[in-house]
Design brief:
The protein is α+β, with helices and mostly antiparallel strands and about 375 residues long. Among the domains are: about 15-145, no CATH class; about 225-325. The chain has helices spanning about 50-55, 95-100, 130-145, 150-155, 165-175, 180-185, 190-200, 210-215, 220-235, 245-255, 255-265, 275-290, 295-310, 315-325, 330-340, 345-350; strands at about 60-65, 70-80, 85-90, 105-115, 120-125. A 5-stranded antiparallel beta sheet has the order 3-2-1-4-5, with helices on both faces. Strand 1 (about 60-65) and strand 2 form a beta hairpin.
């Protein structure tokens, strides 16, 4: 029995970017738990949206500088909850102060939560005459979204092509958080010409994954050809740029044909980089879970090839094995666990018939 030094593994199939200190209404502010079934391909950001902060807070106000207290806020409108004192105990930074003076039609959206007999405030973003009605609508409609969450997605997808950047960004974020099973039904959310235009606009590059998935819902043959050529270019030049999205879109259109192509070009190729393999695994995982679930057997067969050629990728498919209740990987998992003792065998033993030695049954954070 091998007794290699235990190395902790951190794994995930999404991208995480640090949140910024000051954001617009459509931007992300804080790492949150997000949606458990959110699409793994088009969520390149922390998962708690500005809308979440509006809905989760006790108080929502619009504020500007307090004339009696420079560099501090004063409420000019209460959108949610009750506020007795309009003077807000929150510092107004110089950059925002100059912006409010230059644009008197703008206000700052603040959310507050009562903590130990005081209100803790946080800035969510800027608003103006175009965005304020949307904020009010969000707060008005939110109670109904608890019972019919699909209505929340419908509300925001209607703004995907909005001319206002902040409104459009919020729509991108909310739509991108939806499960892929929902995203693949949004083919009519934007005209195909608009989607192609967005894909050509590098100012919206962080949302290109979402647009690629939306393009896959097009019935236009030229769009299908564009997707297939983009995937083949990625394989030819060994690039990971949007590879997961192109692969997901191609599977949407071509199903088994694309799965066989990816298996041959990536999983059977011992020279492929781990980043490339992870991107293809993302596409397979998304479809096997929330997309073409009818192709799960073919995906599992491709995974078996992957683990034969690239055993180090075991950690990246084992979650699907558990979720899909597939035992085909048991031997590969056991083999990898002997070379990497304690990394995940304790968790696997409870979900799959994996004969892990007792001294390897440890709890690691990977599956928590």
């Amino acid at each position: 029995m091998k007794n290699n030094k235990l190395t902790k593994s951190i794994w995930g199939l999404g991208f995480v970017f640090a949140a910024t200190k000051w954001v617009t209404l459509g931007s992300v502010i804080l790492l949150g738990t997000g949606l458990a079934q959110a699409c793994q391909i088009c969520v390149p950001f922390p998962k708690k949206s500005a809308a979440d902060h509006l809905l989760d807070s006790d108080i929502v106000v619009l504020a500007r500088e307090d004339a009696d207290r420079p560099f501090h806020f004063r409420s000019v409108a209460v959108l949610k909850g009750e506020l007795d004192d309009k003077a807000i105990d929150l510092f107004l930074d110089s950059a925002t102060r100059r912006g409010l003076k230059a644009y008197p039609q703008q206000s700052v959206v603040l959310v507050g939560n009562a903590i130990e007999n005081r209100i803790k405030w946080m800035r969510v973003g800027l608003t103006d005459a175009k965005t304020e009605p949307i904020i009010r609508n969000i707060l008005k409609l939110a109670p109904g979204w608890v019972l019919t969450p699909g209505n929340r997605i419908d509300f925001f997808t209607a703004y995907l092509g909005h001319e206002n950047d902040r409104i459009r960004t919020l729509a991108h974020l909310e739509t991108g958080r939806a499960p892929y099973s929902v995203i693949r039904t949004l083919g009519d959310a934007l005209d195909r010409e608009d989607i192609r235009a967005f894909l050509s606009d590098f100012r919206s590059i962080e949302w290109h994954d979402l647009y690629i998935l939306l393009l896959a819902q097009s019935d236009n043959a030229s769009d299908h050809a564009y997707i297939e050529q983009s995937l083949r270019d990625a394989a030819r030049f060994s690039t990971t740029y949007r590879l997961a999205a192109w692969a997901t879109a191609s599977i949407e259109r071509s199903g088994e044909k694309t799965i066989d192509f990816l298996r041959r070009e990536y999983f059977e190729n011992a020279n492929r980089k781990p980043e490339e393999l992870k991107a293809v695994i993302q596409a397979f995982s998304v479809h096997g879970t929330n997309g073409h679930t009818d192709l799960r057997d073919r995906i599992v067969a491709a995974y078996k090839t992957l683990l034969e050629v690239h055993p180090a990728m075991t950690l990246y498919v084992v979650q699907d094995a558990i979720a899909w209740k597939r035992t085909e990987f048991t031997e590969a998992i056991e083999s990898y666990s002997y070379d990497n003792p304690g990394v995940f065998c304790g968790k696997i033993a409870g979900a799959l018939p994996c004969s892990c030695p007792d001294d390897k049954k440890t709890d690691q954070a990977i599956f928590k």
